[in-house]
Design a protein that fits this description.
By secondary structure, the chain is α+β, with helices and mostly antiparallel strands. About 25% of the residues lie in helices and about 40% in strands. The chain is built from two helices and six strands; from the N terminus they run αββββββα. It has a six-stranded antiparallel β-sheet with strand order 4-3-2-1-6-5, with no helix packed on it. β1 (about 35-45) and β2 form a beta hairpin.
């Protein structure tokens, strides 16, 4: 049975609206999520460019709306571990290419993130969720 052009347009419009609502809902669920990850960071004590250490840092990723149709991420260095077992922590150290941060102990560091570590997961652990 042939349908009229206006009926087809209504059908496509309703499908489009449903897809947009689903997309908006998925984006809404992502807002405010923050995850902790590890990263390799170059640390320059006292903002010197000559001496640096390649260390493991703990980075928090926060998700927010960059625009009405785009999610953006912001990365913040929480701490890094010294090779001798010590560590430095930060209150506000938002990442850019290279950023100067002051630790909670008052020391100044120039920090540069080199790479993020891959998140490890066990696929069998995920499949166990569906068996319950």
């Amino acid at each position: 049975m042939p349908t009229s052009r206006s009926e087809r347009l209504k059908k496509y419009l309703s499908i489009g609206i449903c897809l947009y609502i689903a997309y908006a809902f998925i984006m809404y669920l992502q807002i405010g999520n923050s995850t902790d990850t590890r990263a390799t960071v170059n640390v320059f004590p006292d903002s010197s460019n000559a001496k640096n250490y390649r260390l493991t840092g703990h980075v928090e990723k926060s998700v927010y709306f960059g625009s009405p149709v785009h999610l953006s991420s912001e990365y913040t260095v929480k701490s890094f571990d010294w090779p001798n077992g010590g560590y430095e922590t930060f209150k506000e150290c938002k990442l850019n290419n290279r950023v100067e941060c002051v630790s909670t102990s008052g020391d100044s560091y120039l920090i540069e993130v080199r790479s993020f570590e891959a998140e490890s997961y066990d696929p069998y652990e995920l499949s166990d969720l569906f068996r319950r």
